Amino acid sequence: MSAASLRNTTGIMLAGSDALVGSLPSLLDPLCEADRRRVLAIGREEVLQAGKHVWRQGDLQNGIYLIEEGRIRSYYAAPSGREVTLAYWFAGNFVGGPDLFGTGAHVWSSVAVERSQVTFLPGPALRALALQSASIAVALLDALAFKARCYSAMAQMLGTRSVTERLHRLLVFLSKIYGSQQGREIVIGIPFTHGDLANLIGSTRQWVTVQLSRMQARGVIRYHRGLIVILNPRALDLEVV
Fold first, then answer.
1. Which Gene3D superfamilies match (predicted)?
2. In terms of CB atoms within 10 Å, which end of the chain has fewer, N or C?
């Protein structure tokens, strides 16, 4: 899936319903040209190589980052060292918050999964713009509400669904939002390791490996070098119910 097709899409996350985390326009899209220029004028462009942290859990917040290109992973690390992936974010989304204006400490980490280009918007300057322009303030509120829906959907899944249901639901979500139809098969165009999937559903890599092998043996999916192909979407939907 190309960067262009990923623009204006939701991030990748665990959600019980596609409708809960529908696509979100870029933070800049609803703004008039004058307001868009005002926002970009306070920004500073940065390039993050794969593996580079945007920030780490516990760092002081100082603003938000608009994603222009690439993919950013947000995750929480428990004291034990175990990680839970909150979401993968693409171009058109932003990372940062919930304190958009740069106060307090970050409660999770964000890291570039691949080479990414971002624009940093400093919190104090962004707050000043929000006070001056109702359109900018509303755009920020809409973006923050979208993030709240995403994380609420994830919390609901973790609290109410079994780990098996969570894996099946994640595969359904990926096939509907990021899959491309190729004959009777649906190819999910973004590669995921077993560890990636485990971190998204709150499980272990070993458990995911066993489950994917079983689903492959039943002819539900095919998995090879991170590429997931849904062979029988109807069977996968039935297994989620």
1. Jelly Rolls (2.60.120.10)
2. C
